[in-house]
Specification:
about 350 residues; alpha/beta; Isopropylmalate Dehydrogenase; ten-stranded mixed β-sheet; two-stranded antiparallel ribbon; 12 strands; globular; binds 3-isopropylmalic acid; binds magnesium ion
């Protein structure tokens, strides 16, 4: 069956890195019998420019019809003055919520060639391979009440951390399942010493763990988890955590691997439909310069092939091609050491496609 992919290039460096992802899709179609067709739609600032809203109904409808969605990045300083509901980020949060993409998988893998690009000592990050499972459609990102209101004659900003038992249970199950396929160790991260939402989180995770006796469960408070990630990151196999904590910890994990330009992610719903995006943003300062690293975007294609399109064989090929390009010495400027030759977005994309 022909796979239907929706492509959302978005803003900033988004269109440039997406062009390289499409180059990879083309190479798979031309050389490896990949049966797929793809179409494009607008999201984020690009959609605001065209239609006034960050998530047009047509985009959401196309996403619902697709087997998988590839998204690059949204946002830019041009949109800073817009009301919250029309900001580009609302497009991203809106599509995550509307498609029910509650399970966000963010693997952090250190490629041996990039050990020196990490800000940690090479021996601390050598062979690093961890997975953050971030809850993506709940918590303080979406909790009510929220807003800016007047209390006692001054403005107060309000957000609410809310998690229901069922929301915690399903993300815990996703994380236990993921741990089963890896090192069988799961660390749940919360702030149980302060937040009620975390007390419930921990209780439900412990309850779910009874169904996974083969997975070793541990717990860390989020402040300690942040410290452990930069002290001894190799102690982790799978981490499961809330939306906000996962946002923060996954940026730390990205830097461990040398560059945020290397980390892909998969966001899955209960039907196995997925949205695939790099964890980095739209990097407005790099937009249009042709220097951005397209590898997180290309590795997101690999995750899409593996999780939504059930083509693990092609995913392996893409990941090997990325390793091949790194082994051949290609470096975009975010992962280059002083003195190393730097290639642009397009050269990196062409190299990976050429190795397929
Ligand atoms: C991410 C990003 C988004 C988030 C932003 C752009 C809204 O930081 O995917 O990690 O906070 O989820
Ligand atoms: Mg983030």
């Amino acid at each position: 069956m022909t796979a239907k992919i929706l492509i959302l290039p978005g803003d900033g460096i988004g269109p440039e890195i997406m062009e390289q992802a499409e180059r990879v899709l083309e190479a798979l179609r031309a050389r490896h019998g990949f049966d797929a067709r793809w179409s494009h739609a607008l999201i984020g600032g690009a959609a605001v420019d065209a239609s006034g809203e960050p998530l047009p109904a047509a985009t959401l409808e196309a996403a619902r019809q697709a087997d998988a969605v590839l998204l690059a990045a949204v946002g830019g300083p041009k949109y800073d003055g817009l009301p919250r509901e029309r900001r580009p980020e609302r497009g991203l949060l809106g599509i995550r919520k509307a498609l029910g993409l509650f399970a966000n998988l963010r693997p952090a893998i250190l490629y041996p060639e990039l050990a020196s690009a990490s800000s940690l000592k090479p021996e601390l990050v050598e062979n690093l391979d961890l997975l953050i499972v971030r809850e993506l459609t709940g918590g303080i990102y979406f909790g009510q009440p929220r807003g800016i209101e007047i209390r006692d004659g001054e403005r107060v900003g309000v957000n609410t951390e809310v998690y229901s038992e069922s929301e915690i249970e399903r993300i815990a199950r996703s994380a236990f399942e993921a741990a089963r396929l890896r090192g069988k160790r799961l660390c749940s991260v919360d702030k149980e010493n302060v937040l009620e939402a975390s007390v419930l989180w921990r209780e439900v995770v412990v309850r779910v763990s009874k169904d996974y006796p083969d997975v070793q469960l541990s717990h860390l408070l989020v402040d300690n988890a942040a410290m452990q990630l930069v002290r001894a990151p190799k102690q982790f196999d799978v981490i499961v955590t809330s939306n906000l904590f996962g946002d923060i910890l996954s940026d730390i994990a990205a830097q461990l691997t040398g560059s945020i330009g290397m980390l892909p992610s998969a966001s899955l719903n209960e039907r196995g439909q997925g949205l695939y995006e790099p964890i980095h943003g739209s990097a407005p300062d790099l937009a249009g310069l042709g220097v951005a690293n397209p590898l997180a975007m290309i590795l997101s294609v690999a995750m899409m092939l593996r999780y939504s399109l059930k083509r693990g064989d092609l995913a392996d090929r893409v990941e090997s091609a990325v390793k091949g390009a790194l082994a051949a010495g290609l470096r975009t400027r975010d992962i280059a050491r002083p003195g190393e030759k730097v290639v642009g977005t397009r050269e990196m994309g062409e190299a990976v496609a050429g190795l397929l």
